[in-house]
Amino acid sequence: MDLTQATAQEKNSRAKKMMLWFGLVSLIMGFAGWTSAYIVSSKRADWISDLQLPQAFVWSTATIVLSSLTYILAKRAVKQNNQGQGRLMLGITLALGLLFVVLQFVGFSQMLENGYYFTGPTSNIKMSYVFLIAAVHIVHVVAGLISLLVVMFQQFRGKYTPSNMLGLELGATFWHFLDLLWVYLILFMYFVK
Questions:
Q1: Dihedral sign of CA atoms 142, 128, 108, 51 in order
Q2: pLDDT tens across 154-177, in order?
Q3: What average pLDDT does the chain have?
Q4: Which has the higher per-residue pLDDT, 9 or 112?
Q5: Residues 149-186, buried b or exposed e (16+ Cβ, 10 A)?
Q6: Class of residue 89 by CB neighbours under 10 A (exposed 0-12, middle 13-18, buried 19+)
Q7: pTM given for the model
Q8: What does the alpha-carbon distance between residue 144 and residue 138 come to, in Å, rounded to a whole number?
Q9: How far is the C-alpha of 19 from the C-alpha of 9, rounded, in Å?
Q10: With the C-alpha atoms ordered 174, 146, 103, 25, is the resulting torsion angle positive or negative?
Q11: Distance CA 15, CA 68 (A)
């Protein structure tokens, strides 16, 4: 199809998708910088190589992966014009997203209970990176939850149909990105000792 002959709606859709991808690439660059600094800092003499990540991080990882699955099911339901199922799956996705955030804070508490702090005389550089990377990801998950709430609001208003799913697709893309980003981060922190 000739891009100059596209309808205004198609052009608007492409522009919004492109803006989302620019945003995602900038997030990738930010997290690439932090993980690169993590690798460089791992050469320091005070680096703790035998650190065990909190068990709550494992549960939060399973939770966010499951939430991506429920978002996929929501999108599929709306595409099949099953609006009730779509709303249910979006609600479950929201609950799982909130549970992810709660589990992250449980993980922070577990690190503190083990004597690992973000800053201060008993902190170390590795734990500072773990806290920073996880906390910055949580901030983005909160943005994803806000996006999800907007999608849910629009879904309850009946905006999304099999032929009009742009907002739902954009929200799902951002959510799946956050999911994959966390899986990458947890694997990175687990394997890069």
A1: positive
A2: 999 999 999 999 999 999 999 999
A3: 91
A4: 112
A5: eebbeebeeeebeeeebebbbbbbbbbbbbbebbeebb
A6: buried
A7: 0.90
A8: 9
A9: 15
A10: positive
A11: 24
Q: Give the list of residues 6+ apart from residue 84 with CB closer than 8 angstroms, or none.
A: none
Could you tell me the maximum CA-CA distance found in the chain, to the nearest angstrom? 63
| CATH code for position 133 | 1.20.120.80
Cβ-proximal residues to 143 (8 Å cutoff; 6+ apart), any chain: 174
Domain that holds residue 163: 55-191
**Cβ-count burial 15-38 (b if 16+ within 10 Å, e if not):** eeeeebeeeeeebeeebeebbeeb
| Residue 142 CB neighbour total at 10 angstroms | 13
3-state SS, residue 105: helix
Number of separate domains in the chain: 1
